[in-house]
Design a protein that fits this description.
Elements lengths: L4 H7 L4 E8 L2 E9 L5 H7 L8 E3 L6 E5 L22 E8 L7
Antiparallel strand pairs: 1-2, 1-5, 3-4, 4-5
């Protein structure tokens, strides 16, 4: 089970965050996640990350965590082959930054 990411971030003073996921040249961004209205499991579900694969680096600058996607059942590749479950797992680094929303002064 993943540690409580939301409580850790709230304790570090984050309220609303943006998450930038990076893997193999692919970047996706989830903006304006209100930590008071969500939980760790929901964040990991948004990112499709396996909760048992998460490693936190929240004292780094910028803070981030790493995780792997859940295996894709029934996936067929471009050659019409069914790859092994492990071949469908992708590793991501997810960087955390304060969202511009709610942090304007």
């Amino acid at each position: 089970m993943a540690k409580d990411l939301v409580n850790k971030l709230l304790n570090q003073g984050f309220n609303i965050v943006d998450l930038k996921s990076i893997s193999h040249g692919t970047v996706s961004v989830e903006k304006e996640i209100w930590l008071s209205e969500t939980n760790t499991e929901e964040i990991l579900d948004i990112l499709s990350l396996d909760k048992d694969s998460i490693q936190y680096y929240l004292s780094e600058e910028p803070p981030y965590f790493e995780g792997k996607t859940k295996p894709l059942a029934g996936y067929v590749n471009s050659k019409g082959e069914v790859p092994s479950m492990q071949d469908t797992v992708v590793s991501f680094k997810v960087f955390i930054s304060p969202s511009a929303v709610g942090n304007e002064e």
